């Protein structure tokens, strides 16, 4: 797939962007059967795209062999219904290796994760992502967060780079994102560069990102409560402010506050949510750890509250 078709498929999604968790069997190995079920359920529920083996999918914890198997399984299970993008990260050589593995496994695109550990200058970051983009024919979305933070000038150069089609923001600096959008619009006027809200529980900030013209966002909640995530996505699309506020106040804000109770909960709590909904995807791998039992109970109550909000909305 070339970058233009992927960009077109992502521009007007009918549902949230799905970042599946990676399923592990009781012995700790990847469980491809359960993973396949998880991916299938997400696509059937209305996901607009599958981002396999990214942050929520514990990219950091997977061997290259496990990564390849999961990406291939996601591609097989989606069967072309929606695009599949795969993570690629670490240093440049390994990021290139993962990119090529993803291409061989049939992925439609890449999410280029921040480089491992080092805090690099803008020139080094630009060279890194250009090498990843040049390594395959797959279109690349660059992920800004942690140690990969860009200037507007660098984002303009990324937008000019063949194969790089967008930027996912996991930093949350809206002033900086606005400058990205303005600079690219000015310097690359004929481009079709995409922007994604990639903050944890992106629904909480999506009203603000939407005001900047950023309509694409990842939804971790979709992993375990797709009906709630879809209702919010639909309300945004239809400018149903009352429903957006009701779900923010009654579900998403409390979920964000619960997520803040433990390190790594952006993944571990989501995985617990998937288990609560009846699919045993196993525990997180170290160095992440499982959420406290009390927090899992609170999550179960919160899911029930979200369901009640949907029931109230349906009864009106």
From TrEMBL:
The protein's UniProt keywords, in alphabetical order, are:
Lyase
What InterPro entries does this protein map onto?
Aldolase_TIM, DapA-like, Dehydro-deoxyglucarate_dehyd
Q: In which pathway does it act?
A: Carbohydrate acid metabolism; D-glucarate degradation; 2,5-dioxopentanoate from D-glucarate: step 2/2
Name the SMART domains on file.
DHDPS
GO molecular function ontology, one term from the record: 4-hydroxy-tetrahydrodipicolinate synthase activity
Active-site residues from the entry: 143, 168
Name of protein: Probable 5-dehydro-4-deoxyglucarate dehydratase
């Amino acid at each position: 797939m070339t970058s233009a078709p992927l960009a077109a498929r992502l521009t007007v999604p009918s549902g949230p962007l799905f970042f599946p968790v990676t399923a592990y069997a009781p012995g700790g190995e990847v469980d491809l059967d359960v993973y396949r079920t998880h991916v299938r359920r997400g696509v059937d529920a209305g996901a607009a795209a599958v981002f396999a083996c990214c942050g929520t999918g514990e990219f950091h914890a997977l061997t290259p062999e496990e990564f390849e198997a999961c990406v291939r399984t996601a591609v097989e299970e989606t069967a072309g219904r929606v695009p599949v993008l795969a993570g690629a990260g670490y240093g440049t050589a390994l990021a290139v290796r993962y990119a090529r593995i993803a291409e061989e496994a049939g992925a439609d695109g890449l999410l280029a994760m921040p480089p491992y550990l080092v805090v690099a200058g803008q020139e080094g970051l630009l060279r890194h992502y250009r090498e990843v983009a040049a390594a395959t024919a797959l279109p690349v979305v660059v992920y800004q967060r942690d140690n990969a933070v860009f200037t507007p000038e660098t984002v303009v150069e990324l937008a000019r780079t063949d194969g790089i089609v967008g930027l996912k923001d996991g930093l949350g600096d809206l002033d900086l994102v606005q400058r990205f959008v303005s600079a690219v619009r000015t310097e690359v006027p004929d481009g079709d560069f995409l922007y994604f809200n990639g903050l944890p529980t992106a629904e909480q900030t999506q009203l603000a990102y939407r005001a900047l013209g950023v309509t694409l966002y990842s939804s971790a909640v979709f992993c375990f409560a797709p009906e709630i995530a879809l209702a919010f996505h639909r309300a945004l699309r239809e400018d149903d402010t009352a429903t957006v506020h009701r779900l923010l106040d009654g579900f998403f804000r409390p979920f964000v506050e619960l997520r803040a109770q433990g390190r790594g909960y952006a993944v571990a709590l989501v995985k617990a949510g998937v288990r609560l909904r009846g699919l045993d995807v196993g525990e997180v791998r170290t160095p992440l750890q499982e959420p406290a039992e009390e927090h899992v109970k609170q999550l179960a109550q919160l899911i029930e509250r979200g369901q009640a909000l949907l029931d109230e909305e349906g009864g009106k």
